[in-house]
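Need Apolipoprotein C-IV's 3D structure for a figure. Predict it.
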Amino acid sequence: TKEPDSPGLLQKLAERVRAAKNKILALGALTQGFAGAYYEDHIQPVTDSYVEWASGVKTSVWERIQTTIGHYTPFNTTQVD
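Structure prediction for Apolipoprotein C-IV:
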């Protein structure tokens, strides 16, 4: 019986693994590019308006809080005679 060529077999296996890895990485890059383009075209325009709205609400609420605190005088230490 003839024994298999282990070093050659391992080298071929390693080459196949490298080739498969490169294909997977290339597919991942392609998928990521497609996903990024889809996000920019379809999702980002919708979410941007909600982000702007939420930012406006946050600013408005913060301004109202600051105004209310500014008008609340029990913590004011100066006395008006």
